[in-house]
Amino acid sequence: MSIVPLTTAVNKHLLRRLLQLAQARRITATQDIVDIHGALVVANGTHLEADHFDALAGRKLKKTIESSLRVEHPVDTPLIVDTARRIIDTSVPVRRILRAAGASSPLELLAAMTFNEPMRLLLTLVHNEGPHALEHAVSVSLLSLGMAATLRLPAEEQFAAGLAGLLHDIGELYIAPAWLEPGKRLAPHEWAQLVIHPRLGQMLVAELADYPPSVARAIAEHHERCDGTGYPRQAPGKHISAPGQAVLVAEMIAGVLGKDHPLERAELALKIVPGEHARDLVSAISGALRQEARQAPAAHEEMSGTEEPQRLHRRIAAALDLGDQLLGGPGAKSPHSTEMLGQMLVRIETIQRAFISTGLSHDIGLVDDGVLLFEKSVATREIQWRLRDIARDLALHSAGSPDEKALFAGLIALLDDDSDGPLAHEAKNAPAPKLAARLPASFAGSLAYAS
User: pTM of the prediction?
Assistant: First the structure.
């Protein structure tokens, strides 16, 4: 994977975050900051204030701004270790995963990590993003160490996974905060603003830090999937490094730690579409769940605002029908359009099989069963996400062609529409789902990779 050098143009979103940080902690120039024409912008030793940041706006520098600044009281190894210790002490799911994975010394590995000035600056900016931003980064690092131990990786690759987990989202510092608002729902084409952050993180670590190349690579891979449906490269499993596979599963788990029954959610998310994640890592979550009896979740709040499974089933069938129509119609003229449609139809068929395997459209016996109601809700949302992923990919890959944008517009809207309103397209002869005669006590255990 080739790495494009960092631009020396000052990113306006990073600059705004630096200005906010400077209001709380002193930021000092560690060398003369000079633009590409040789003009001095900020002198070595200057404590940067608002007017200095104004002077830097829009400039292209001889050296990257990140390599020219030092922050007072930065995030460093002791704070990271203290944060990790607190997470282990207070988070039962993290503790159970680390125990099941056999990760015996995660704090020692974290204590061995070192950070130069640019990395300390970026970690401090992450910490300044919100009360839980650093905690999330450290949680992903701990879980990455656990997943790396599960894969029995050599010590240096476990270390790389832990570092990559800690630094995985530093690329988001270069994205407008409006796109990162918690709970913000992105339209398919708006994902173009976000899918760049793994590559940005890779470039930052490769150029600004002196870490093994495996660290930057794992950061680039933390939103990939083993079946080739992730981003930014849609790389299949054989092209995703082992540390990268550890981090991508860890990041997904960390995303549900703040919700009720996080391990149950994680197990369903990892299993629902076979092939998305390494089998050993899926088994590790199941192993963590086996360490103590499962509790029956209450799902009445979880179900609110969720698309009904019957509509979801019809929507999947409608997407397949519309995709077939487009593939056989006059609009799909180019090889690129035909290839995209073919790949999309394969992905939707995989999702349809996953939907049927859960028995989601079979409501008998669900009303008073908390476990099944919970799993029904989580599985519905996971399948909705997979359809939205396809909408995202179609939107991004067709963005450069007005003809393809017009061709795929209706299909993208259908894949993204998880409301409870009428469908814009209905399959003429949608087959009824082939369901088992009766539902299991919990369908999570019946999904692929069950152990």
Answer: 0.91
